[in-house]
TrEMBL record:
Pfam families per the UniProt record, alphabetical: MR_MLE_C (PF13378)
Keyword terms, alphabetized: Magnesium, Metal-binding
Protein's name in the database: L-alanine-DL-glutamate epimerase-like enolase superfamily enzyme
InterPro entries listed in its UniProt record: Enolase-like_C_sf (IPR036849), Enolase-like_N (IPR029017), Enolase_C-like (IPR029065), Mandelate_racemase_C (IPR013342), RHMD-like (IPR046945)
Boundaries of every Mandelate racemase/muconate lactonizing enzyme C-terminal domain copy: 131-243
PANTHER family: ENOLASE SUPERFAMILY, MANDELATE RACEMASE, MITOCHONDRIAL ENOLASE SUPERFAMILY MEMBER 1
Source species, domain of life: Bacteria
Cofactor dependence: Mg(2+)
Organism: Rhizobium halophytocola
Amino acid sequence: MSKITAIEITHHRLPLDPPFKASWDGRARRNFDATIVRVRDDEGREGIGSGDLMKGFEGHEDLFIGEDPRHLERHYEVISHIGFHYGRCWPLDLALWDLAGKITEEPVWRMLGGRSDRVRLYASSGVLREPEALADQAERYIDEGFPAMKVRFSSSAGGRDGWRADVKALETVRSRVGDRLELMVDCNQGWRMPWDTSMAWTFKDALAVAKELERLGAYWMEEPLHRADRKGMRDLRAATSVRIAGGEMTREIDAFRDIIEDRALDIIQPDVALVGGITGCRRLVYQAREAGVGFTPHSWTNGIGVLANAHLTAGVGEAPWLEYPYDNPEWSSERRDYPMTSALAHQKGWLVLGGQPGLGISLDEERLKATRIG
């Protein structure tokens, strides 16, 4: 029986020059941080995960050392208890799944049910470009084979001049691409950065935007209201034909249970690196399916997080697309995936996972050594 012998957590920082100006952040990002979690067993195998900072985990290693890494439900319970008292430690769940796959010599997607070895991607943009430049980006996505694109709306000061300007940008994209590309919109109203004190939209703001998005054939509108306004999102669902999506920063699995039971969203967007890990989020796949609610993970972390969400989606989910953070040149696959030996590469809008055991992660040890900060 395999036993866990060690857990190692390291933090890394990649300088960004030029900086990345994310649509949801009023401050330009000059660094990209990554936390790497490694779980080792007594036969020399290593499982890898990444995501949140693992705050509060130090001192709890003894709850896992000596245990069989394949006891994933047991480990999920312990991690959830740590998360209640401290921070989100779900990267450990990803590392445990990776290690379990290496022990069983199976890819995680197959361990989860084996529905497919690949997922369809939508290109997730991150920069607030001028309308014509945004349309140019949409054309490039089409040329690369993506079936869909997510357009960002402004969240705070420093963005476009209000939602009407955002709608004009979307209108320019739709005029250029016609029906060659599905378009979804991230309204960026669900949460704020610590320094951003601007208010989220009211229900009537969101409804006015929804009517514009109906006209422009948007597939979904994401985070149109503050994350706590469950009633408002349910009412918005009833008032528009545009699908309402959200939940990327929801911290608890049971909160998703309530969202699903309330039918507050058409599409839930948990991220295995941020809430529940693979073990918890696979519960949500089944709950959402039984309730007729869509499931499409958020995956704006790094390539390790993208892979983990892709394995869940391919193995057990039926998502029409998976989020693929990709907005050259400011957010290139090389920046996104710097902890890995090579950046993920889509194949005409598909991410093919293959048959490698575990999550299929290969770390760039030299790059990690050069970027280590803790």
